[in-house]
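User: Please predict the structure of the protein below. I'd like the answer in structure-token form so I can feed it into my own downstream comparison script.

Assistant: Understood. Taking the following sequence of 231 residues as input:
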Amino acid sequence: MPFPIRRSAPVASRHRPTTAAVAVASATGLLAGTAATASAAPAPVRTDGGAPVRYVALGDSFSSGPGIPDQTDEACGRSSRNYPTLVAASLGAASFTDVTCAGADTRHMTIPQGAANPQFDAPQARVLVVGYPAIVPDDGTACRATVPLAEGDFASFRDKQKQLNSMLAREAGNGRDTYVDAYAPSVGHDACKPQGVRWIEPEQTAEAAGFHPNAAGHRSTADATLATLTR
């Protein structure tokens, strides 16, 4: 199965303190974009000394939330409970634009993705690059009855995912952007775990698309993004 590529999240503008933005990673590891996070219902967070935050979320299916009820855009697999929506609510954003879309890669930052317009229009924004959560067990153990990979592939999959996240962190630093670690908080909630514990669905379920985060996974990513924004 293809390895999913990722999205990210942002905050206040680098040069214009009223702008917020997040980032997306493509198969080539290039970054661009916007996103958000949140959990229960904390007081609105201000990241720019009190000025209103304009928040824009860019990204692929790990940001849009395919299969998570309620779907607000079936073509892009966008959910009303995805982590950008949660982040925007916790930020008390003055405006929120969510253009995350399943299947997006860095080409779609600047060119249309089918009927969807190009995602990228967030100049001078502060950008947060959000990494991927743990998809298979962090200890490399196998669960072949749940995830149909060869036993030895589980550790390899984990290692490749960690390499991808390391690349995203490095590229974020090279671009003077901020990396959000979604992996560490998700350890122990991978696709091998039972329902109610896992944050990644091992197949298409009522909770989310297969091999994608469910609502609990998006809440965790939202929390990680907000924690980064308020440090």
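That's the full token string. The longest strand covers residues 126-130.
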